[in-house]
Structures are given as structure tokens and as C-alpha cells.
Amino acid sequence: MSETSGPTGRTPETDVIDFRAAEQLLAARDPRGAVKLLDAVIAAHPENTAARLLRARAFFLAAQLRAAELEFTIVLEREPDNAFAHFALARTYERRSCPDLARRHFRLAAALDPNPEYLERARFED
Q: Which helix (H) or strand (E) holds 2?
């Protein structure tokens, strides 16, 4: 084992490679494969918000909505001004049939970023 590897034998390079591979798997519509890779990255770096956000997206695409909700919530605890995380959490709540929670996070996303899609989903006129 090299001096730079941790107790699991992982190196920083391994984590970067796994993160990038997980991005590719998600783009190829293999969210479960992405989650498997990201589990190891997050175990080694639980504070890594980018890895958690990617895993949340993978959970969402795999229809693992409770897991997605948890990951998006962790991201927002660390980055409360992350408009995308609010938007994605809103979509998660929407799929879980929680319209009031969804509306709240759609509106927070739109308030943080005037992205046309965020503004449309926020339905401020309602």
C-alpha cells in the first residue's frame, strides 16, 4: 500500500477517478452503478459536498427518493444557498407527493437563481 492511501487502500487519485466515472455512469443512465462508486468516495470523504450532490442525483434517477431527500438535505445543510439542490429537493418532494414542501424549495431555488426553469416551477403567482 502506498503512503498516500488510506486504511481502505484508496488514494486521492482513486477517489477522483471514481467520482468522474460516477458522472459518466449517471450520464449513461446507470444511477445504481454511480451510487456504488460514490459510496466509496463518500466513505473516504464524508464532507465532500460535490460527491453527495452527485449521489443525491443518482438516488433520484434510481427512484430511491428517501435516500435522495437525505442527500439533498445534507448538501443544503452545508450549502443553504445551493439553488440546484433546492430545485432537485423540490422535484424529489414532488415525486413523493409532498406538494407544500416541493413548492417551498422550488421558490427558494428561484429566489437564489432566476433560472427560467426554477422561476416557472416556483409559481410565485399562486
A: none
In angstroms, the CA 45 to CA 37 distance is 13
pLDDT tens for residues 38-47? 999 999 999 9
Handedness of CA 25, 33, 31, 60 (dihedral sign): negative
pLDDT tens digits along 62-118: 999 999 999 999 999 999 999 999 999 999 999 999 999 999 999 999 999 999 999
- 97's enclosing H/E stretch is none
**Rg, Å, the chain Cα set:** 16
Neighbouring CB atoms inside 10 A of 34's CB total: 27
Of 51, 86, 83, nearest in space to 72 by CA: 86
Dist CA 119 CA 69 (whole Å): 21
Question: How far is CA 103 from each of CA 50, 94, 100, 125, rounded to the nearest angstrom?
Answer: 24, 8, 5, 12
